[in-house]
Amino acid sequence: MCQKKLKALPKNITIDGPAASGKTTIGTIVANKIGYMCLDTGIMYRAVAFQALKEGIEISDEAAVTSLAERIEIDILPATSQDGRQFDVIINGEDHTWDIRTAAVNAVVSEVSVYPGVRKAMTLQQRKIAEKGKIVMIGRDIGTVVLPDAELKIYLDASVEVRAQRRYVEDLSHGKDACLEDVVDSLRHRDEIDSGRVVAPLKAADDAIVIDSDKMTVYEVVEFVMGLLEMRE
Ligand code: DC
């Protein structure tokens, strides 16, 4: 690609959208191209869910899960292993990069992320990380709640069927014993909770640019986002 020089990059870029819509793939590529860091905030909610299960905390115990979210230490660092990971996820000093991606965590993470106290703790950390700028921040509520003043907001959408197919292929490539119907059901369930919660539900910010990636390749979506950055000159 003959890439134009990008003069006026936004301080931060937000990418929101439903589960498995390709946010992290697109965000990582765009961030690499423009020399920004990429933070997938879903990791933080997954870390809380994983640690709650690990400590035997009842997921329905809001006070206990919230207290955990307030004390948990989550470090998201550049990948040190070539096993397909995009980041190293260190929780309270231990590498749990793959443990946060299990079906057990998938089953409870949306529930955990409904709790206002959990969201408050995560939002505070996310805003702090974004203060220095040069972050592509990915999640569900980044453009609406975490960084409402961000200059470039993307909302990446895709149908549940397309997202499930992509996630299914990804799971198989990681050697997981996946079933397409289960993936569809799990995504539908999470979409419902993510969009229906009272605090910071999944939705596009009014000033977000919505990209429907159903019929687009990763390359096409990246090109589209890079085009948006070039238009800012
Ligand atoms: O993107 P993901 O599937 O890894 O996200 C895991 C869960 O975290 C998802 O069900 C919703 C929640 N989440 C959220 O509520 N807000 C965010 N900013 C990011 C993720």
What is the structural class? alpha/beta
CATH H-level homologous superfamily name? P-loop containing nucleotide triphosphate hydrolases
Q: Give the overall silhouette.
A: globular
- Written as H for each helix and E for each strand, in order along the chain, the element string is EHEHHEEEHHEHEHHEH
CATH domain class name: Alpha Beta
CA-CA gap between termini: 18 Å
What Rg is obtained from the alpha carbons, in whole angstroms? 17 Å
Bound molecules: 2'-deoxycytidine-5'-monophosphate
Low-confidence stretches: none
Q: Please list the strands of the largest sheet in the order they lie side by side.
A: 2-6-1-7-8
Total E-strand runs: 8
Largest sheet: 5 strands, parallel
Describe the overall structure.
With 233 residues, the chain is α/β, with parallel strands linked by helices. The chain has one domain (12-221): Rossmann fold (3-Layer(aba) Sandwich), CATH 3.40.50.300. It contains nine helices and eight strands. The strands form two sheets. Strands 2-6-1-7-8 form a five-stranded parallel beta sheet, sandwiched between helices. A hairpin with an 8-residue loop joins strand 3 and strand 4 (87-91). Helix 1 crosses helix 9 and helix 4 (103-112) runs parallel beside helix 8. The model has no long low-confidence stretch (mean pLDDT 93). The protein binds 2'-deoxycytidine-5'-monophosphate (DC).
